[in-house]
Design goal:
Blueprint (H helix, E strand, L loop, with lengths): L2 E2 L14 H11 L12 H8 L3 H15 L3 H30 L8 E6 L2 E6 L8 E5 L7 E13 L1 H4 L12 E2 L4 E13 L5 H11 L6 H30 L4 H15 L4 H18 L8 H7 L21 E4 L2 E4 L14 H21 L1 H14 L10 H11 L1 H8 L20 H29 L10 H25 L16 H19 L1 H7 L6 H7 L2 H23 L3
Antiparallel strand pairs: 1-5, 2-3, 2-4, 4-7, 5-6, 5-7, 8-9
């Protein structure tokens, strides 16, 4: 049965507006479009990706390298920062554009009564007092007052969160962005464009200040500590070299080398690419992530407090706990029915973010000691033992050999226990990681590295305190470089599990890691076997004896890892009450 709203001063005649009245209102109020704030230009957005704190640290390192007379190192670091910035910009810009399409919630066309006739017009041409005809399937284009209705039902879930359709009374205001799911009706436009309730909600969301994500806070803290430590160590190294009688120019080069060795140049692209992969996983589940760091924030979430409709999920919700005056009741069921259900969407997020964290921790942490040890040995021996690795070799290790294994670890299949127990709530770099990196894996790799370097020198006739020939030094340096790379690859396998040793699970469980190891081995052969590149970085292809000694780092790292994990298991068992 059709119902009609009582006549009033705001009710327009049944014939609708005239063409001249429409023009006047368009001139007065403007088109019916959602107001969009002026976004920063793409160039500005790209620039912001190049000047955040971590990028600034790398720019400073590049500047120091230029001052020290190492333009190749400067170019390499600059390329890392620029490529990472471009990738992060492209990822977020694409998501921003997808988010901007939300403005298309307003339909492109609407049926109105004008000059006594029913016409179809663009939704942007709707004006206040327009008479709009409604039927099932129409998305409402502007705020309007319902004047006539025949069994009209409206889905307002986008604004109210209520999944159940409403049946508005005559005279009620229907909001822009909702849609008619049943019946037919007629309404008069009361607000358009920026004056609609939808525009007000959009303005509130834009006005909200975005707090820093947990990951950005942790990374900022890490980078700050690393930057201070690197600069302080470089200053001390320069002072020590001057006290030892080293020429200032060479002492400065040594200090720059120490500083660069302590800056994890590969950490920035590793974090970006790991989060980008998690973003793609979420996109596969139809979840749009506009900012990369939001992935880690979602993975760190323990509880989501929302209303009964579960709008944040799928417009439905499972009741798991009910608070009553008599106490708390736990419920297992689907919706409000106690029939039992479990979903796995959250597990994908947790797995992606935890594995990205694992990749960052395991691959970058302990490499610092292996890279810094040659400089420490050179300093402690007053230069009587040559530098095992050049600064450019260290950069190649940070960027070339760390990146792919870290990304592959980010693709590690989730453990069955990923959703069991509490989330990791500690610091990104905690005591366990520091002990693992600097007391277990780092020393094992550094000892083998320097052992290979000195053994190759001695085998070639070098005597302590003398300056080895260029060919012999390149051969020994190549052996040390190969040792560090092989040690890093062994460590990547060890990082697949935080509690089980390598061999306790299938090595084929992560095929991407196998591919990454293969690519890194090929990269190692190219660096050492391509004469032009080897001449720039320093180092040459080891002989058979050098390769045999370098391979010893694999069992050394795996044995140290297994012993450390066994000791932790033993400690946890002792801590458990009898």
């Amino acid at each position: 049965m059709e119902r009609a709203a009582p006549a009033g001063p705001a009710v327009v005649a049944a014939g609708g507006l005239s063409a001249s009245e429409v023009v006047q209102r368009l001139e007065r109020d403007g088109p019916n479009v959602m107001p969009t704030p002026r976004a920063p230009s793409a160039l500005v957005q790209l620039g912001l990706q190049l000047v955040h704190f971590f990028a600034i640290v790398l720019w400073v390192a590049a500047g120091l390298a230029l001052v020290a007379g190492m333009p190749q190192l400067t170019v390499a670091i600059a390329v890392v920062v620029v490529l990472n910035g471009v990738f992060a910009f492209a990822q977020e810009h694409r998501a921003e554009r997808a988010g901007a399409r939300l403005a298309d919630l307003l339909p492109p066309r609407a049926r109105v009564v004008r000059d006594g006739a029913v016409v179809e017009v663009s939704a942007t041409d709707l004006v206040v007092d327009d008479v709009v005809l409604l039927e099932a399937g129409d998305r409402i284009s502007a705020d309007l007052r319902l004047d006539r209705a025949v069994s009209v039902a409206v889905d307002e879930s986008m604004l109210t969160g209520e999944s159940v359709t409403s049946r508005p009374e005559l005279g009620a205001v229907l909001r822009a962005g909702t849609f008619v799911v049943e019946g037919v009706g007629r309404g008069t436009v009361t607000a358009t464009g920026g004056r609609t309730r939808l525009a007000e909600i959009a303005a509130l969301t834009r006005a909200a200040r975005r707090p820093p994500s947990p990951l950005s806070v942790q990374l900022h803290r890490i980078v700050t500590v690393v930057a201070v430590l690197a600069v302080a160590t470089g200053v001390v190294a320069f002072g020590v070299s001057l006290l030892l009688g080293v020429e200032p120019a060479f002492g400065f080069l040594f200090a720059v080398g120490v500083t660069v060795a302590l800056v994890p140049e590969g950490l920035l692209p590793t974090v970006t690419l790991s989060l980008a992969r998690a973003t793609q996983l979420m996109a596969g589940r139809h979840a749009l992530v506009r900012r990369l760091e939001a992935v880690e924030t979602l993975g760190s979430t323990t509880f989501i407090c929302t209303d009964k409709t579960g709008t944040l999920t799928r417009n439905e919700m499972n009741v798991v706990e009910v608070w009553t005056p008599a106490g708390t009741v736990r419920v297992a069921g689907r919706g409000y029915e106690p029939t039992g259900q479990r979903t796995g969407g959250a597990a994908a997020v947790v797995a992606a973010t935890e594995l990205a964290r694992s990749a960052v921790e395991c691959v970058h942490g302990r490499a610092v000691l292996a890279e810094l040890t040659p400089f420490v040995v050179w300093s402690l021996t007053l230069g009587h033992v040559p530098l095992a690795l050049s600064v450019l070799q260290i950069l190649a290790l940070d960027i070339g050999t760390d990146l792919l294994p870290a990304l592959a670890l980010g693709a590690e299949p989730a453990s069955e226990r990923v959703m069991a127990g509490p989330l990791h709530q500690g610091a990104l770099v905690d005591g366990v990681l520091m002990r693992r990196a600097f007391l277990v894996l780092g020393p094992a790799e550094a000892v083998v590295e320097m052992g290979v370097f000195i053994a190759v020198l001695v085998h070639g006739g070098w005597v302590y305190g003398t300056v080895p020939g260029a060919e012999l030094l390149a051969l020994a340096s190549g052996g040390a470089f190969a040792t560090v790379v092989l040690g890093q690859l062994a460590n990547a396998f060890a990082c697949r599990s935080a509690s089980r040793r390598v061999g306790a699970w299938s090595l084929r469980g992560n095929r991407l890691l196998l591919w990454a190891v293969g690519v890194e081995l090929a990269f190692l052969v190219v660096i050492l076997g391509w004469p032009a590149l080897a001449a720039v970085l320093g180092g040459s292809m080891p002989d058979l004896a050098g390769w045999a000694m370098a391979l010893l780092v694999v069992p050394a790292v795996l044995a140290a890892d297994a012993a450390h994990k066994a000791a932790r298991r033993w400690g946890r068992r002792r801590a458990q009450p009898a």
